[in-house]
Design a protein that fits this description.
alpha/beta; GIY-YIG endonuclease; Rossmann fold; 6 domains; seven-stranded parallel beta sheet; 35% helix; 23% strand; globular; binds adenosine-5'-diphosphate; binds zinc ion
């Protein structure tokens, strides 16, 4: 029998699996996901079994040495790993690390005695093999012994036979465990679960009709072990409440749950609500956890000690052996796309994992991605709708403010007269204000008034942003430059144009000196703890104005807020991206949902220079469906997803000329190979130079993934990437590059 194994060589997993022979003694023990010791060169190293090929192309196949853990990864998870590698065009060895804890710790193998107590009940005549009797006697006295100590007592192959005999006849049982303690699976969880489930039922929230209906569908799906859903509900419509009940239903069936949120900052909220209901069964997993902690969490999930994991997209790879439910909250968020190899999309991978493990997948959003809503319109996702706000909350009144008017009236500030008025009355009433602007720093554009000079980053092809601490910074690579106020080229004076969050903060402090202001952007939030602080301060009403970037402040629930201001709705509208309008619509709708979440009526003011733009007008009306119809029609006409499958090939290198010529020759080859493939470009990337590297790209369109993959394989097979050029292959790109 042969096995293909991803092996580790000098702390790196080798991309392509290698083929080994499984020795007869290990045939019963080796499965998909088994952790083994294997020879490589004249050394030994670790490997993970990912397949059982019929034959090998190499001569002299080496033999697997030892089993370190028969089930490091559950086998459906290994299938998922292989699927991802194929789907996203990367190597299994690149995908494997996503599924592993930072530190691979060996589980100990224990043998526990199940037969009668003491030596007396044992008759040597019961056993075929004399050693079996001795081992049985020893185990009956000790109760539970590690395999290692048995081996040191009885070295040699006979021990294995003796243990096999005892196991087959039900005298002993083998367990794998990370600690020396008995496995906690049986010990702690069932009682705890019951207690918690009781708790949640005692809470006095009566679900609305819509919530009950949604839950009913999810419960049916959970029982059947299949079903993909899109839960479309405006903010505050009680989606999270539905998730919680579905989690309880999954636990009741003995299944585990993965809950994904789009941003790190949203983990605590979700985790708190889950912990309230399910206590110790809930764990948190994300990339910034310290190594040891991440390993511990991984082990708890693997062993079944914890059953619910909350985290950002990487938590999707948690090693739950019995999975019942995957929830992806704020499904439309671009952060679900991974920006390094393997360039996966958590939504696609979740649907695949659900299928492989018999789990229900719920995508939830107030503003579903056009792709997801399209799938729902085709019946590939079952659409569940929550139309009403729960707890009596009403939709806020939204006003669009035409900033061209302000300009014509000769005002130069970033806060319109209307917005200032509303801020004043809101603060007077003792209520809170949220202001959004998707730009950090003080002034995003710096220009010389005399010669037009713009300070740019020396590593990246972008202008530098002025910050209040008197530094110019690159927002791509972090480069810092001092500020002199005069132009280095002509000595003229430099103008600070446009507004970032710092400038809005300064303006608020000038106009409303009595306001207590907080700012939440990645400059003010160097750590998740700082974010918690700001969040708690604002929640406790220690401040009454919070200025933030949309990405950070999304999903926040502040009952005291009755006014939301969008400083500049146009920031995301004109990005060179076919999703720019959709993004703008989503941001504005989400932001508007922050106002008046409780009984108080909320107000939202949107400042824009494009007051007729549909993405803005429809967001103001909270009219998702009309926006979707507009958007899907334009995607159909312009041939964009979901009507085609996209891929992006990115080329990077230190010398611009080399990058360009590589891009052109790749484009030529691709244009030759496929008739169903449409090749756009080559063109410079959206940010044409980052950290000293020039970037060009090709965009490919094909009717579906299969055609795309075939054309890419044919094209890339004939293409020889020149030295010094990096080629990035991305299936289904989501973000600008
Ligand atoms: P969403 O996730 O859609 O934004 P949540 O589930 O967080 O909405 O619900 C918003 C608030 O309303 C929460 O405080 C929640 O406890 C409460 N809530 C949810 N469902 C109900 C209900 N049926 N009746 C009363 N309150 C509810
Ligand atoms: Zn830079």
């Amino acid at each position: 029998m042969l096995a293909s194994v991803i092996v580790n060589s000098s702390k790196q997993w080798i991309g392509q699996p290698l083929v080994y022979e499984v020795p007869a003694s290990l045939i019963g023990e080796i499965r998909l996901g088994t952790w083994v010791r294997v020879p490589i060169g004249n050394r030994e190293t670790d490997g993970v079994v990912v397949g059982f090929p019929q034959e090998s192309t190499v001569q002299n196949v080496k033999v697997i040495g030892e089993v370190l853990d028969p089930e490091l990864l559950p086998s459906p998870v290994v299938e998922l790993l292989l699927w991802m590698s194929e789907y996203y065009l990367c190597l299994p060895g690149e995908t494997l690390p996503l599924f592993l804890p930072p530190i691979l710790k060996r589980r100990q193998c224990f043998w526990s005695w199940l037969g009668g107590k003491g030596r007396e009940g044992l008759d040597p005549a019961l056993f075929i093999n004399p050693l079996t009797f001795e081992v049985a006697a020893y185990l009956s006295r000790r109760g539970r012994v590690t395999q290692r100590s048995l081996k040191s007592r009885w070295p040699g192959k006979e021990l294995d036979l003796a243990l096999q005999e005892l196991e087959a006849r039900g005298f002993v049982v083998r367990e794998w465990s990370w600690g020396s303690k008995a496995s906690k699976k049986q010990a702690s969880s069932p009682g705890l679960e019951e207690e918690n489930l009781r708790d949640i039922e005692q809470q006095v929230i009566n679900l609305t009709f819509e919530q009950r209906l949604a839950l009913k569908y999810l419960e049916i799906g959970l029982k059947q072990g299949k079903g993909n859903f899109l839960l479309h509900g405006i903010t505050g419509s009680g989606k999270t409440e539905v998730y919680l009940r579905a989690v309880a239903a999954a636990l009741n069936l003995g299944k585990g749950v993965i809950v994904l949120v789009p941003e790190h900052s949203l983990i605590p909220q979700m985790a708190e609500r889950l912990k309230e209901a399910f206590g110790h069964l809930v764990v948190i997993l994300h990339g910034d956890l310290p190594t040891g902690e991440r390993t511990g969490v991984w082990e708890k999930l693997r062993s079944g000690e914890a059953k619910i994991v909350v985290g950002t997209r990487s938590a999707l790879f948690a090693p739950l052996p019995e999975l019942g439910l995957i929830v992806i909250d704020e499904e439309h968020s671009p952060t679900y796309k991974h920006e390094a190899n393997p360039r996966y999309d958590a939504r696609e991978v979740a649907l695949k994992r659900g299928q492989l493990q018999g789990a229900v997948v719920v995508l939830g959003s107030a503003t579903p991605s056009t792709e997801a809503y399209f799938l729902a319109s085709r019946g590939q996702l079952k659409l569940l709708v929550l139309k009403q706000r729960v707890a009596g909350g009403q939709l806020p009144k939204v006003e669009i403010i035409d900033m061209r008017e302000e300009y014509l009236q000769g005002r130069s500030g970033y806060l319109s007269v209307r917005l200032q008025e509303e801020i004043r009355t809101t603060l007077k009433r003792g209520e809170q204000v949220l202001l959004f602007l998707n730009r950090r720093g003080y002034a995003p554009h710096v220009t010389c008034r005399c010669c037009g000079y713009v300070p740019t980053c020396t590593n990246c092809a972008v202008g530098l942003t002025y910050h209040v601490d008197g530094k110019l910074r690159c927002h791509y690579c972090g480069l810092e430059k001092g500020w002199r106020g005069s132009c280095p080229r002509c000595g003229g004076s430099l103008a600070l144009l446009g507004a970032g969050t710092q400038r809005v903060e300064a303006e608020i402090r000038t106009i409303f000196p009595e306001a207590r202001v907080l700012r939440a952007d990645s400059d003010s939030l160097k750590s998740p703890r700082r974010w918690r602080e700001i969040y708690n301060l604002f929640l406790a009403r220690q401040a009454n104005v919070l200025i933030g970037t949309q990405t950070i402040a999304k999903g926040m629930d502040f009952p005291g807020v009755s006014l939301v201001g969008v400083i500049n709705a146009d920031v995301s509208l004109f990005l060179p991206d076919f999703r720019a309008r959709e993004r703008t619509f989503q941001l504005l709708t989400q932001v508007a949902g922050r106002a008046g979440r409780r009984s108080r009526e909320g107000k939202v003011l949107i400042q824009t220079f494009n007051p007729q733009e549909p993405a803005i007008v429809l967001a103001a009306r909270q009219d998702y469906e009309s926006f979707y119809h507009l958007e899907i029609a334009s995607r159909r006409t312009l041939r964009y997803p979901p009507f085609v499958k996209l891929a992006r090939l990115g080329l990077m290198g230190l010398y611009e000329g080399e990058v360009i010529s590589a891009a052109f020759s790749l484009a030529r080859i691709l244009k030759e190979v496929g008739t169903s493939l449409e090749v756009l470009g080559p063109a410079p990337a959206a940010i044409p130079k980052v950290r000293g590297e020039y970037r060009w790209q090709l965009t490919l369109k094909a009717p579906g993934w299969q055609e795309l993959k075939e054309a890419l394989e044919a094209g890339l097979g004939r293409y020889c990437c020149p030295p010094g050029i990096k080629l990035i292959k991305e299936i289904g790109p989501v973000n600008l590059w």
